[in-house]
Amino acid sequence: MKNTFFCKKNTINIQGKIISLQEQWVMGILNVTPDSFYDGGAHNSIQTAIAQTQKFLNEGAQIIDVGGYSTRPNADDIAVQEEINRVVPVIAALKQKFPNIIISIDTFRAEVARQAIQHGAAMINDISAGELDPTMFETVAALQVPYILMHTRGTPQNMQSQTDYTNMMDEIITFFSTKINKLKALGVNDLIIDPGFGFAKTLDQNYELLQKLSYFNVLELPILVGLSRKSMVYKLLQTTAAEALNGTTVLHTLALEQGASILRVHDVKEAVETITLVNKFMKS
């Protein structure tokens, strides 16, 4: 059941337009990397990126999240310029092909974010909430774009060794509260939180996080969830990411019931259908 005791901010300003998230949105994942855990190498040319984006838009995605740095556990680190070289040409091509598209840049590096915004991206999706680049918050404030801040610990290379919480939910809410206060003091008003499923959390901790997702409504901000085909699905089911769509849909249903505003997904059509059915159920 959704927590109704808090007045959640369900609008964001994207390039001067006030966008409502009262009806949940779908963010399609466009990885232009060779090594992402599910689709690495599948869309890392301009032609394949355009084709996948067209598919996502046809299926109902409202945001395309372009990432050039794999953040799967133990992923290789790459240079800033290499990340820029991966994402900027794709973003520019997508904006030219689809002028009205909303593109999010998935990066924790301020310079990558800045160049992506200059070439057509409209949002920043930072898995580190400013932890991995001390100039990120000032960059977001200067750019005045919506900012998605995710909870994690450490880096993609070592995060899975940093799962020792005393009270995980309290610690994550405190983490967000501190970050939100800093961002608002800098004049950043359009914020979205992501609890960080799979980042510095064990399988059991991921399910505790999902069970208590509505707790984050106390922050009065839209909640994005990234559950798509993650190991918390396929490891529990003893299968693979390629076989994890059904499990992903189940978890999306639970997240929507808990108040999620945005689903970040590999499979747009199925996520849109899930939102339609859950909303019908909730309103009946």
Q: What does this protein structure show overall?
A:
The structure is a single chain. The strands form 2 sheets. The chain has an 8-stranded parallel β-sheet. The chain has a two-stranded antiparallel sheet with strand order 1-2. It has a single domain, classed as Dihydropteroate synthase-like (TIM Barrel, Alpha-Beta Barrel). The protein has helices at 46-59, 80-97, 110-118, 136-143, 168-185, 203-211, 231-234, 245-257, 268-283, and strands spanning 11-14, 17-20, 25-31, 63-67, 103-106, 123-126, 147-150, 191-194, 224-225, 262-265. Helix 1 packs across helix 2 and helix 2 packs parallel to helix 3 (110-118). Helices cover 38% and strands 15% of the residues. Mean pLDDT is 92; it is low at 1-5. The two termini are 14 Å apart. The protein has 284 residues and is α/β, with parallel strands linked by helices.
Strand order of the largest sheet: 8-7-6-5-4-3-10-9
CATH superfamily placement: Dihydropteroate synthase-like
CATH class: Alpha Beta
Strand content: 5-15%
Provide the structure class: alpha/beta
- And the CATH topology? TIM Barrel
The level of helicity is 25-40%
Overall residue-averaged pLDDT value: 92
N-to-C order of helices and strands: EEEHEHEHEHEHEHEHHEH
Number of domains in the coordinates? 1
* Total strand segments: 10
Shape: globular
- Major pleated sheet: 8 strands, parallel
- How many helices? 9
Rounded radius of gyration (Å) = 17 Å
Q: Spans of 5+ residues with little confidence (pLDDT < 50)?
A: 1-5
- End-to-end separation: 14 Å
